[in-house]
Amino acid sequence: MEIIGYAAAVLIGVSLGLIGGGGSILTVPVLVYLFGIDAFLATEYSLFVVGISSLVGSVSYFKKGLVNFKMALVFGIPSIISIFLTRIYLLPLIPENVFQMQNFTVTKNIFLLLIFAGLMILASYKMIKRNSSEEPLESMTNKNSAFLAAGQGSMVGVLTGLVGAGGGFMIIPALVNLLKVPMKTAIGTSLVIISFNSLIGFLSSVNQVKVEWKLLISITVIAVAGIIMGSKLSKKIDGKKLKPAFGWFILVMGIYIITKEIFL
Q: Rounded CA gap, 249 and 237, in Å?
């Protein structure tokens, strides 16, 4: 299963490099179901894997001038604050047994995986839907757009803090629609935001868990190799054309998690 897990880690990196988001949504399921890692610990590991992979992936966009740091701050600062508060204060409040229905107990691990599955289904919808959501909108003022982007940044921060996903599927449309960032620059900027969000989230709660560094670094190295491959492939392949197919794959994975955790 670990061999399949490492192969999936390559896929995570390739998707991040190719379409700028979506790959991180696979990290927690890969860690839980292929490496046998506890769901809460998997969210911590995911933050590190996604953070380092996105940081490496952003370098090529930075060299091409396709990173807008001003917009990264508008979106990223509220997101970072939300991640910090979620990892430090909100996650510890979730009890080990969240609630019980007849003979079925929803534990903290199951609860986090169900939230993650719901996030996967939302991500798949945004990927499968035609790219109308990624066309710039002209009706909002700059002030309103920045305010909405900051609000969405906070929302992404809570989700990243809870389940360890980068949230690129939400960040890119927000950058394009609300902050009028061109698509290629939005992808580069998204990778910068994801890297800072994820690494700050990891550092804020790393003392709460026992990290198996050898395993974590090996997975991260494989994912980084994947993102380098994805960045090179992006010059030859249009990521937009692959997005719907990847969306369907994520949808199936989300449904699988819900089915496994509730019915199996």
A: 19
Task: Kindly report the number of other CB atoms within 10 A of residue 63's CB atom.
Answer: 10
d(CA 15, CA 40): 24
The contacts of residue 29 (CB under 8 Å, 6+ apart) are 116, 120, 253, 257
pLDDT of residue 21: 61
Domain boundaries along the sequence of the chain: 2-263
Q: How far apart are CA 18 and CA 23, in angstroms?
A: 9
- Span 91-113, pLDDT tens digits: 888 898 988 877 888 898 888 88
Q: What is the pTM of this model?
A: 0.83
Q: Which of 5, 29, 189, 178 is nearest to 109 (CA)?
A: 29
Mean pLDDT of 38-56: 88
Residue type, 80: I
Structure token digits, residue 61:
């966009």
Phi, psi dihedral angles at 101 (to 5 degrees): -125, 110
